[in-house]
What does this fold into?
Amino acid sequence: MNNTEEKAERELILVNISGEDQSGLTAQFTEILARYDAAVLDIGQADIHHTLSFGILFMTDSRRSGDIIKELLFTTAKLKVQVAFKIISEEEYNDWVARQGKNRYIITILGRKITAEQICATSKVISEQGLNIDAITRLTGRMPLDDTEQPVTKACIEFSVRGTPHDMLKMQEEFMSLSRTLNYDISLQEDTIYRRSRRLICFDMDSTLIRTEVIDELADRAGVGEEVRAITESAMRGEIDFEESFKRRVALLKGLDVSVMKDIAENLPITEGVDRLMEVLKRSGYKTAILSGGFTYFGNYLKQKYNFDYVYANELEVGPDGKLTGNYVGDIVDGKRKKELLRLLAQVENINIAQTIAVGDGANDLPMLSEAGLGIAFHAKPKVKAEAGQSISTIGIDGVLYFLGFKDSYISAKGN
It folds into this structure.
C-alpha cells in the first residue's frame, strides 16, 4: 500500500464542458471531484443564450485521475454536453500563477449598438499592446432585433485584461481614434481596489445634467441671447478665461426680472439618463454634488428634484426692485474652484480622492476631471475629450454607470 502511494504522481487536469445549460450542472461535476478529494485550482463559467461554457482546473494524483475522468465522461454523456480534458504541466501552472500578479485593466466599450467591427478593433489594440483578455462581460440587457422595437438603445461590453501595456499613452490615443471613426465610446481604467468602491460623484450642470446653458436661456429673456451665446461658446472651447467670460455675460443680464428664473427652471431640458442615473447612485449609497459655473437657483432646483447632497454654483445679485443687477455675489465657481470643492467634499465625506468621480463637458471642468479618481467628459468639445481620458459621447449620462461596472440586471432592480 505504501509503495503504491509513493509511486502515485501529482496530476493537474483542465476540464472544459460546453452544451445546453441545465440546472445543477456545477453541483454534479464538483460532487465527483469532492468524492475523490480533488483540489480545485481554478474555475470559471459563462452562459450565453442558455449555452454553457464551464471550465475547471483541479489537482489529483495518478491513482484517482482515471476514475475521475471516467465518472465525468459518464455524467456529461448522460447530460448530453461536450467535455474535453487537458493535462497541465506544473511549469504551465506556475507560469499562469505568475501572470496573476500582473497589472489588471478594465476596458469598457459602449454605444447605441456594439458591432463586430468595434469589438475587433478594440481587441486588436489590446493584443498589440501585449495584454491578455481574461473575461468579456455584457453589462447591458437584451438588444432589440430592430429599431422599431426599442428606438433608443444602449449596449455595453466590459473586457477584463491583464498585463502591462507596451505604451499606455499610445493605447489611449488609439482608443480615442477608434471612438471617433467607429462611433462608440471606450474607457480604459486600471482595475484597482478603488474602481469598484467609488463614493462621491460630482457633476457639472449646464450641458451635462441639462441640455442647455442656463445663462443662454436667461440671455434670451433679456434680449441679449446672441451676444451671450458667442461668449459662452468661446469659454467652453477654452479660448477665453472663464472668469472674464462669466463677468461679461452676467453684466449683460442687468435689468432682467428675477421671476423668469422659476419658469426656466420648471422647463429645463433634462439630459437623457439623469433619472435612471440618480436613482441608481442614491440607491447604491453614493454622495452626489453639483459643481457648476452656472447659478445656484437652478442647481437647487435640481437638488430638490433628484436629491443631490451638495450644490455649489454662482449667485446672481438681485436688486430691491426684483431685477438682476448685472453683478454676482461671492466667489466665482470656475475650473479652479471646482477642483478645490471636489477635494473639500472628499475630505468632508472622509474618502480617498481616488474614490471620486467627476463628470463635465467644458474646458472649465478639466481641473476637476483630472483631479478625480475617474474623470469623464460627457458629450464634450474635442479639446476636453482629448485631455479627460474617459468620455461618453454616444449615449445618455446613465452611461456613467457602466464605467462603474454596473450591469442592467442591477440597474433595473428596485430597492426596498
